[in-house]
Amino acid sequence: MSERGYQRDFASSHAAMYDETGRERKANTMVAVLRDALGVSLRHARCLNIGCSTGIIDQFLAPFVGSMTGLDIDEAAIAYANERHATGNLSFRVGDAMAIDAADESIDVVICSQVYEHVPDPERMMGEIHRVLAPGGVCYFAATNRLCIVEQHYFLPFLSMLPTALADRYLQLTGKGMHYYERHRTCWGLKRLVSAFNVSDYTQKLIGDSDRFHTRYMTGTGIKLIVLKVWVRFAYWSFPGYIWLLRKS
After folding, report:
1. Which residues contact 222 (CB under 8 A, 6 or more apart)?
2. Strands, DSSP E only, in 107-155?
3. What is the pLDDT of residues 217-233, one digit of tens each?
4. 111 Cβ partners below 8 Å, 6+ apart?
């Protein structure tokens, strides 16, 4: 395991984890992608959301799958999720993404959205995802590019590109925090991270058909949409983030 410790109590310092509108938008896109990939079989899928935080996304996904489990190391967030959202086929538990408490090949769908940069050892986490997925199972993998100009947690330009010591100092000087925990990877680094899976790239599809995949809130219209379509096609390596469907063969 990496020398980095665990990033605990994330939700307490990131209000976005409690933003129902923003979280439900993400969930809409997840459902659209999974429906496109799995069709009617999604209705019976055993689904696990790694890094579920406050459970808002899970609450939205639950009606579309057979069973839904949210997993997170953030105890306060899981307590909130259990109090507000646990019901029927939806449950939450405190757990480690690098040591998932699930049997081999027991999960049909794993959600791993914007999580890899938060865990001490992303390779170990991806190994666990591969282990628990049933043959033919899929992982919805959303990841931010290290080369994203504006970092998505603290909204500071170039933060994720800096060496650790400089990133820490940058946070301190801007009054945003004392330590920059996240470790982002480039497009090439992310491809190496998921190399055990067959990858279906949905990034361009989400830009090209924003109505179908409910991404209009991200893509906008007019000039912005045109720029994004050109960018993702001709400079994919520098695009801010990616959505890939990882399939266990």
Report:
1. none
2. 107-113, 133-144
3. 999 999 999 999 999 99
4. 30, 47, 48, 49, 50, 52, 57, 61, 139, 140
CB 48 within 8 Å of CB 102: yes
- Residue 186 identity (one-letter amino acid): T
What's CA 248's distance to the chain center, in Å? Answer: 18
What percent of the chain stands above pLDDT 70? 99
Amino acid at 230: V
Task: Burial-class residue 168 by CB neighbours within 10 Å (0-12, 13-18, 19+).
Answer: middle
CA dist 129 and 73 (Å) reads 16
| Cβ atoms within 10 Å, residue 224 | 11
Quick: pLDDT tens for 51-88: 999 999 999 999 999 999 999 999 999 999 999 999 99
Rounded to a whole number, what is the largest CA-CA distance in the chain?
51
CA dist., res. 24 & res. 166, Å (int): 34
Q: pLDDT class for 175, splitting at 50, 70, 90?
A: very high
Q: Would the pTM of this model clear 0.85, i.e. be above it?
A: yes
CB-side neighbour CA atoms (13 Å) of 116: 28
* Structural contact between residues 128 and 100, judged by C-beta atoms closer than 8 angstroms: yes
∠ CA 132-114-7, nearest 5°, is 85
The three-state secondary structure class of 19 is: coil
